[in-house]
Design brief:
The protein has 203 residues and is an all-alpha fold. Helices cover 70% and strands 0% of the residues.
Length: 203
């Protein structure tokens, strides 16, 4: 395998693992934030606080700012991605898999085709190039600009992960000391009191 193909494979691993890590962390943080919201709302109800803010269903996501930034796009245009996908489809389109008796091979190629379809939709040229390499086909020429955009996305994802891991919600999830966990929850409630104009709602 030449150096450029090795570069493609390495960056693809980093990109896909970074995306998976961010999605997992966001799910965990959102679940915890909703749990904290529920505790806060129940406390507020018990103190007869005005609960107009309860109508807002996105309080947890807003509080820890976990909306995905879709501005990160690692490619320009669609010509390269379409050509790459066409080469893949000629090899492992479902119609091409008819007659394969090995169920493991069949499933592997079907999953690879689905992965390629998602990459086409998202214009992920690097992922398509990686699939072509795995299929023993020649990948498209990846420009330095395209490589740099992948690196930028990976760095952007790392920043988002770091931002989430610095929140009180994240610290609350992983705190094992009961006293410290209560203090973190108290701080979260203080921030929510400020946000919603409630008074002295405490854990």
């Amino acid at each position: 395998m030449n150096a450029e193909n090795q570069k493609i494979k390495l960056l693809t691993v980093k990109l896909t693992s970074s995306r998976f890590e961010l999605d997992t962390i966001k799910q965990m943080a959102n679940t915890a934030a909703k749990e904290v919201d529920k505790m806060f709302f129940e406390k507020a109800k018990s103190t007869n606080e005005k609960m107009q803010f309860l109508k807002n269903e996105n309080t947890a996501e807003e509080k820890i700012n976990l909306e995905r930034n879709d501005a990160d796009n690692i490619n320009q245009g669609t010509s390269n991605t379409k050509k790459a996908f066409r080469k893949i489809a000629l090899k492992i389109h479902p119609d091409k898999l008819i007659g394969i008796e090995d169920q493991e091979e069949l499933q592997e190629k079907a999953e690879l085709y689905q992965k390629a379809s998602r990459a086409l939709e998202n214009e992920d040229i690097l992922i398509l190039a990686d699939i072509l390499i795995d299929l023993g086909l020649q990948p498209p020429k990846i420009s330095e600009q395209e490589f740099n955009k992948v690196v930028e996305e990976i760095n952007s994802i790392k920043k988002k992960i770091s931002d989430i891991e610095s929140t009180y919600i994240w610290k609350w999830i992983f705190c094992s000391n009961k006293a410290e966990k209560k203090e973190i929850l108290k701080k979260i409630f203080e921030l929510m009191n400020d946000k919603y104009g409630t008074k002295n709602i405490r854990p």
